[in-house]
Amino acid sequence: MVLADFREAMRVAVGTGFFCYRAIEAMMQSMKGADITSDNSAWQQLRDRLRIDRSAIDEIKSHADLGISGHRQQRNCNCHYEDANFQFLPI
After folding, report:
1. Model pTM?
2. What is the pLDDT of residue 67?
3. C-alpha distances in angstroms, 79 versus 18, 35, 67, 75?
């Protein structure tokens, strides 16, 4: 799923932010296991393993929140993109 989302990010210019963030979220989900069950812990584990600051992920998420028109949508962290049938989780 991660590679497919990165491929779509390159193919669909207006969806680049959305697909990049969705790939990152999929990587976060892969951090979950027997010892890590919460989203917050999984996000922390992902950031630690990639040695990346939260602000970098937040920057990508800000682009995911842009609509097709390029204008920022009035949505909260739990954005639901009906066309892609996907819901973002808070970081």
Report:
1. 0.69
2. 54
3. 11, 28, 11, 6
